[in-house]
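In this section we walk through a basic example: taking a raw amino acid sequence and producing a predicted 3D structure, encoded as discrete structure tokens. The instruction is simple. Fold the sequence below.
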Amino acid sequence: MSLTLKPRVPVRAKISSVGTYVPPRVLTNADLEKMVETNDQWIVERTGIRERHLVDKGVATSDLAVEAARCCLKIRGIEASEVEVIIVATVTPDMLFPATACLVQNKLGVPEAWGFDLSAACSGFPYALQVGAKLVESGMHRKVLVIGADVMSSIIDYTDRTTCVIFGDGAGAVLLEPCAEGEVGLIDYWHEIDGAGAVALNMPGGGSLNPSTAETVAKKMHYVHQDGQAVYKFAVRKMAEATEKVLERNGLEGKDLGCFIPHQANKRIIESTAHRLGMPPESVIINIDRYGNTTAATIPLAMHTALEEGRLQKGDLVLLASVGAGFTVGATLLRWEF
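The resulting token sequence is shown next.
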């Protein structure tokens, strides 16, 4: 007896809920003035950051991810048991293995979900979003949880003023589901990587190249190392190029967008990209002043800010954009259906 498989009807994926979480402890620029040679004016002028949230000792990435996931599911009004796939975008996993997604699955109490981690630094969330969308669009899954979460304070040297002023801790989660009739959801994306940029932003210790030893710890190889000027120049150029490519491919201009939600790495990078796209300031979401750069969590956190402030409405055309270590680059076009 032969088995006849019915062809799956192609569907589109949409974001059906958003949830976020940041730890309660706040580190202000005034606090940093007491720790390193810096000042509030210098930090604000160069980055746009005024404060960031940090975890307490013993709080891990999976803890933040679970809180964001619970918030997301509560807003959607469903139980965790309905989730089929969990994708966690992070560069600060609880441990090298198992995947943080496994720890999240256990803490959420999801009985039969599968999942994995995705490492693309600050582009982790949009990359994971597209992977999750394809699982929905294939017809194989109906509820995919995509989480961007990082505890950057665990890999930051708080005696290095070039990095410690930038990063914060946080998490954001979205639920992906099939579009209903008449809905559009995720439309298009443009992703690329440039591995030549690896030398400009990395954490050199702890992997197979430089396994953890007393020497790697003494040399501070387990902290983020960054060539700020190289990263800035690449980010300004590539965030603009990626956004323009995805808009041009869909016959759109910046003025057609209801909302631009970029990765929150630097206020000047965001404003430069928005200006090049011809976007009015009220359509550009910037919340870096209160969270800093939370790496994979910045875009969902910015989505929450946009919703909270009434600047993201059902039916809006939305553009997401990111540049991260790797280098990684991403831009995503979608119709907001939530």
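Looking at the output, two observations stand out. The mean pLDDT is 96. The two ends are 45 Å apart (CA to CA). In the next section we compare this with other chains.
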